[in-house]
Structure formats: structure tokens, C-alpha cells
Amino acid sequence: MKRNEFLTTMIGTTMLAGFRQFTDELPEQGPEMPVLFVGHGSPMNGIETNEFSSYWGQLAKEIPVPKAVLVISAHWLSRGTHITAMDFPKTIHDFGGFPKALFDVQYPAPGSLALAKETAGLIHSTVVGLDHDWGLDHGTWSVVRQMYPKADIPVLQLSIDYTKDAQYHYDLAKELAALRRKGVLILGSGNMVHNLRMIGLPKSGDFNEAYGHDWAIHMNDTFKRLIMNGDHQSLIHYDRLGPEARLAIPSPDHYLPLIYTMALQGKRDAVSFFNDKAVAGSLTMTSVKIANA
């Protein structure tokens, strides 16, 4: 064997050993981890202590400690599907016009190349690229740092292919189901109702005060009813739900993470809601927990 062939073989063997070591540490069977959809709202929720962020922290104490967290964030849209695969993903400040304290936030959670490879291997509907450039955007860290402030749990992101429809994403998400049995918390981060062009504030000026336009409250209630009824097809074909749906979802980026979460609902799972509130007129913070009953 030539030297370069030997080195290539050794490097591949070493990476495979590391991959197996990580996955071997994850339980093969056992109670499934819950799946979450979190309405993340304003980036300020990442540093403020308020009713939303406080519940995120409380929720983390109520569910099993995950081996890793895989987030589908509304803020990573890509052509094709990619997963972060670096050892230490950077903290991305993908917003503007907020206080310096928000830009100063660093969330130094580790990543996991091994889990990235395993996740990519579970998905057969498309080729999943291993990404070494992205990191953790505010759709991820604003929530996860409130849940796990020690930043000692590996966190990965799976991108949303903006060229595909909701049915495609629903089918892809189902391929991730095995991760629940291995202690991975899968978390969709977006907002059920999200229309920034129609934001309005109550007289108090408080962004997080309960306040919703009639159409926003109507659609949020509609989505909740469909979720409780297990009517996933109506959720997938949200564009058939009337003009209010077009106001609630002017673009699908913040809605599709919900589709990932719902796709992972199993026969043994119960559904519950938390942070069920409309804010700023055209946003809803309503979040979903799916867990074995």
C-alpha cells in the first residue's frame, strides 16, 4: 500500500471510530425524547428574562437531559439540505437594530461531526451536505441558551431547503425519527403566525404584551385545532386555509419548522401547547411539545 493510500485509510478509520464512539454512547432504545416547536419571537428573548424565556428554562428541567440538540431554525434557508458539522459552531448575530448587549452574546456550545454524519446518513430522500461555515443563528441560540445556559450540550442545525414545499419537508423530517430514541432533542424554531410587515404594538408599547390582530388569532386557533386533531395534511397544505393563512404565512420560513416537529409525532405521543400568546399584532409565540404519553 502506498503512503498516501495508507494515510487516507487511517484517517477514514479514525473518523469512523470517533463516529461510532459518539453514537455508541447514545442509548439504542428507551423512552423517546420529546420534540419541540418553539415560537422564538424577538431576538431579545435570548437575553431577557420574561414569561417566554422563563418557560424555556423551566421546560429544560422537565424533560430528560438530551445527549444533543438538533435545531431546524427559520433563519437558515439554503438550496439543498445541510447540517452543521464543526466542532465549535460560531454564534451568528443575524439581525440589526438591537442593543449592543445582544450582539455581545456568545453561546459556545460544541457541535458534533459524528452526529452530523449520523443524521445525514438517516436521510435518504436527498443528499445532506456537511456544513463547516454556518453556526448557530438566533433562531437557535436565543432559545437554547435559555434552556441550557452552561452550553455543555452539543447543538447542531439542519437547514431548510427553500426550493421545496411543505410536503417535502414533512417527509424528510420523518427520516429523523431514530434520533429521538438516541437521546437527541429535535427542536423546530420559528413562529406559527409571522408577518413582520403587519406588526403593531398595544398602547403600552410593550412588544411582549398580549396583542393580536383578529386574523392572526383566528389562524393561530386554526393551527392549534389542526394540531390537536392530528390533521397533518391540512397543516402541510396551509395555503388552502383561506386568505387569513396568507396573512399569517406570507413566506414559509417561520412556519416550516412546525412541519418538522409535527412530522415526528408518533402514535404514543401526546401534544401540548405552551407560551400560547399573540404579540405585536402579527406574531404568535404559541409553541408545541410532543412527548410519549
TrEMBL record:
Gene3D superfamilies: LigB-like (3.40.830.10). InterPro entries: Extradiol_dOase_DODA, Xdiol_dOase_suB. Its EC number is 1.13.11.29. Residues 49-264 form the Extradiol ring-cleavage dioxygenase class III enzyme subunit B domain. Keywords: Dioxygenase, Metal-binding, Oxidoreductase, Zinc. The keyword Oxidoreductase applies. Its cofactor is Zn(2+). SUPFAM superfamilies: LigB-like. CDD domains: 45_DOPA_Dioxygenase. Signal peptide: none annotated. The keyword Zinc applies. Belongs to the DODA-type extradiol aromatic ring-opening dioxygenase family. This is 4,5-DOPA dioxygenase extradiol. The lineage of its organism: Bacteria, Pseudomonadati, Bacteroidota, Cytophagia, Cytophagales.
